[in-house]
Design a protein that fits this description.
Elements lengths: L2 E4 L1 E3 L8 H9 L4 E2 L3 E2 L1 E3 H13 L7 E4 L5 E2 H12 L9 E2 L2 H8 L3 H4 L14 H7 L1
Parallel strand pairs: 1-6, 2-5, 3-8
Antiparallel strand pairs: 4-7
Protein name: Nucleoside-diphosphate-sugar epimerase
Organism: Bradyrhizobium yuanmingense
Length: 135
């Protein structure tokens, strides 16, 4: 058995949320996003990594990180969405919220509480191990 770890999946089914969160997200529009960073990978690349790891004997018992390119902030991801979706992205946030405001809002919004420890922390990851062992 091996494990593949990914940060943010992109592609078909991008950011699937549970039903309640989907409904809440439709009702309100956040004008700003927290200063949080993620490694990003296309979900199809994650699927390919899983297939290669399952079929490669040298992958047995190993863990792999699936990431492509550099770490991106939520604001960077929002910019990409606005660029690619054009007018359909009118509700995508354009601003980055100051850390103090996110901390203050987290007192009342439970969903933000999980974000507070990640504010401003950039975690650099690499998929070099997966690339060298699995090709």
């Amino acid at each position: 058995m091996c494990r593949g770890h990914f940060r943010v999946r992109a592609g078909a089914g991008l950011f699937r949320l549970d039903r309640d969160r989907q409904i809440a997200a439709r009702r309100r529009h956040a004008p700003a996003v927290p200063r949080v960073y993620f490694g990003v990978v296309d979900v199809r690349d994650v699927a390919e990594l899983h297939l290669r790891a399952m079929t490669a004997p040298e992958a047995k018992g190993e863990r792999f990180i699936a990431i492509s390119g550099e770490t991106m902030s939520i604001l960077d991801i929002a910019r990409v969405l606005r660029r690619e979706l054009g007018p359909r992205a009118r509700r995508v946030p354009r601003l980055q919220a100051p850390d103090w405001l996110v901390r203050l809002a987290a007192r009342r919004i439970p969903l933000l509480r999980a974000v507070v420890p990640m504010l401003g922390k950039v975690r650099h990851s690499t998929s070099a191990k997966a690339e060298s062992l699995l090709g």
